[in-house]
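Quick illustration, no need to memorize.
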Amino acid sequence: MKKQAKFGIGIGVIVVSLCFLAWLGYGESKTYYHTITELQTLRGADLSHRIRVGGTVAPGSIHRFTGRVDFVLEGEGKSLPVSYVGSDPLPDTFIDKSQALVEGRQTDGRFVAEVVQAKCASKYEAAPGGTVATSTSATK
């Protein structure tokens, strides 16, 4: 066999291998967004995918343990127990009644989250009907 043919076959094998690895990586990195209600209706292979779920953190449900944080997300009249086992610290805005988006997998009636994102609290918004404070001192 000629050198050019061997070289061409080698390049072809490398390109096919890289395409296969890219395809596998793409399949593993996909994340599906579902509501809490939809999550409770998923069956079979749909549960094995990475899933994102959004909701409101139930008041008084945040419990911190060594290596995990348990809390309950509420939405559409349903609740979802969540265990956060990620290595990143939770955001400062992650408090009771805050909006949160969790990413992970459903296991045995509990959602195991590896990523938690919290929406900015409304405390940064202007108060409804608020007035602007003005200085009462006058300069003459």
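The radius of gyration is 25 Å.
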